[in-house]
Amino acid sequence: MKILVTLALTILSFTLTAQEVSQLVGNWKFKQLYEQEGVGEAQMEMAKTFFGTMVLQLFDEAKYSASILGQSEHGTWALKESTIQLTASNGTEVAIEVVSVADSELVIKYGKSALVMAKASDAEIEKEAVEEITYETVSITLEQAAKKWYLVKRESMENPEKDNQKANELLAGAYMDLSKNLKYQVSIMGAKEKGKWRLSTDYQSIVMVKDKSVKTWNVLKVTDTELELIQGSSAKKWIFSTIEP
């Protein structure tokens, strides 16, 4: 069933009507996965972890604001047939396919995931805005960073005791390989991504670049065998080790 749904989403192509285009404007927040049949509890928890705080705001003047995993961005948006093209202020581009849209619900294909987004008022968005987590970062050298790092676990900075065990079980086997020639490979949940990496100008962040996509990981701790990273204002830190589990 999941394969059929994925195939249907892949080949789907249509042009939105003027009414549907007007319905796109507004605040959208993650509600649930589009296809839940056959999805296990652990996968559902992982979806909530990655997309639970996802917000997409599309404004009349072709501007947008988006946030996911504690990182926010702003830019312009345009509609090409059934695809929302987001262009961030830093030049990063993301294509989001519209599966369906109504007054209160939007179904999109984001990456390989099909998501249901619910319409939200300005008050709801403000109420759910997450207060930025404050933390101190440390410096890291190329020699320290250029290693193969295995994910040990992902941990809440606010309350480590509430760490999601099922999510960590799903993340088991994930790694981040930063080579000395400044190329990287990341493997997570069986999916692999390759690109280039560098250190930030203050040497306190690892910056990964794939095509026009840029991800910044701030360094919380580094030793010869341990590395702790965090993205943006996310309350989750990712703990790595050079020792394979």
How would you characterize the overall build of this protein?
- The chain has helices at about 1-10, 20-25, 40-50, 120-130, 140-145, 165-170, and strands at about 25-35, 55-60, 65-70, 70-80, 85-90, 95-100, 105-110, 115-120, 150-155, 175-180, 185-190, 190-200, 205-210, 215-220, 225-230, 235-240.
- The protein is an alpha+beta fold and about 240 residues long.
- About 20% of the residues lie in helices and about 45% in strands.
- An 8-stranded antiparallel β-barrel has the order 1-2-3-4-5-6-7-8. An 8-stranded antiparallel barrel has the order 9-10-11-12-13-14-15-16.
- The chain is built from 6 helices and 16 strands.
Please name the defining characteristics of this protein:
245 residues; Lipocalin; 8-stranded antiparallel β-barrel; disordered N terminus
Per DSSP, the total helix count is 6
Mean pLDDT across residues? 82
Low-pLDDT ranges: 1-14
CATH architecture of the largest domain: Beta Barrel
Largest beta sheet: strand ordering: 1-2-3-4-5-6-7-8
How many individual β-strands?
Answer: 16
Largest sheet: 8 strands, antiparallel, barrel
Quick structural summary:
The chain has helices at 2-11, 18-24, 41-51, 122-128, 142-145, 165-171; strands at residues 26-33, 55-58, 63-68, 71-80, 83-88, 93-101, 105-110, 113-120, 148-156, 175-178, 183-188, 191-199, 205-210, 213-222, 226-230, 236-241. Helix 3 crosses helix 6 (165-171). By secondary structure, it is α+β, with helices and mostly antiparallel strands.
List the helices and strands and how they pair.
Layout: H1 2-11, H2 18-24, E1 26-33, H3 41-51, E2 55-58, E3 63-68, E4 71-80, E5 83-88, E6 93-101, E7 105-110, E8 113-120, H4 122-128, H5 142-145, E9 148-156, H6 165-171, E10 175-178, E11 183-188, E12 191-199, E13 205-210, E14 213-222, E15 226-230, E16 236-241
Antiparallel strand pairs: 1-2, 1-8, 2-3, 3-4, 4-5, 5-6, 6-7, 7-8, 9-10, 9-16, 10-11, 11-12, 12-13, 13-14, 14-15, 15-16
